[in-house]
């Protein structure tokens, strides 16, 4: 009998290096750690002496980074500010092998940056003291949007899979969505949408990947049992005209709904080893694109995405995995399941 492990092993063996285009909100995550020895005389606040500064790609940039580490040929499209955060972010992506010529450095917004400052004093453990966000205060200039739009058609034609990664930071506006929709339809490409905004804007996508709260916001009711989950899947598929919908449900795993083909759910793997779930959704989207671009169906893609998520949630910060590591993890799971089998 074909087991769950056999399906996953077969899907893993099929993975290739598809060309994936990611259009969306690029974010830089900055982590600063330091020591506190003194309280300031200017205000009753601790003075943090910086010891370590660590930068990681966030938002769409995390999906892009995950794709590159998974072995996809990845092209990034989006904007940064004309600032050091922007050049740091582009450099991180380039070091991972990402094609970044579609990333525009623009004057009207800063690079979206989320800074976590953590500190410890002599007798305390490290803890977060402050989170500082630098966000766009206004829309992108019409010229910036026109430049992005003009590049989309040619980039979509070159890709096997197109991802729109919308973190509500101003890149994924209706006009851009229209351009992407027209291009993916005319070139018959797989179109995956990961959006924190209104999913109805992305009518006709191949796959939508809301997490449970995002699905609930779109529906206006809570998903709290099998019946509401099934209704959510049906309603969202109907209202968005998507071919498939994957609701990621945190520690409850994920559920796939399809127009053609069966619905399916998988439980979260590795729940005991959870350390940090930040960015797991980005890993899921990246793995789905890699799998779909390698010829897997959505059920196989979901199985692989679930496996990849179970690996990155064991690590601190937004994190990535590789097909080799997924292979290794699958084998470990198999050994645990059947310790006496050969
Ligand atoms: N506590 C957990 N235990 C086990 N697996 C988890 C847990 N949280 C998340 N996962 C795995 O990660 C997947 C994606 O998580 P989630 O639904 O939280 O996405 P998300 O909210 O979009 O994440 P993010 O936006 O932080 O990237 C889940 O479907 C599951 O496979
Ligand atoms: Mg998400």
Folded structure, characterized:
There is one protein chain. The protein is α/β, with parallel strands linked by helices and 342 residues long. Helices cover 39% and strands 28% of the residues. Helix 1 packs across helix 9. It binds adenosine-5'-triphosphate (ATP) and magnesium ion. Adenosine-5'-triphosphate is lined by residues 211, 248-251, 253-254, 268, 271, 274, 277-282, 284, 306, 309, 313.
Multimerization status = single chain
Question: What name is given to the CATH topology?
Answer: UDP-N-acetylmuramoyl-L-alanine:D-glutamate ligase
Number of helices: 10
Can you give the helix content as a percent range? 25-40%
- Going across the major beta sheet, what is the strand order? 5-4-1-8-9-10-11-12-13
Bound molecules: adenosine-5'-triphosphate, magnesium ion
As a percent range, the share of strand residues is 25-35%
| CATH homology group | Ribokinase
What's the CATH first level? Alpha Beta
How many runs of DSSP E, i.e. beta strands? 13
Low-pLDDT residue spans: none
Q: What would you say the CATH architecture is?
A: 3-Layer(aba) Sandwich
Largest sheet: 9 strands, mixed
Overall average pLDDT: 95
The SS-based structural class is alpha/beta
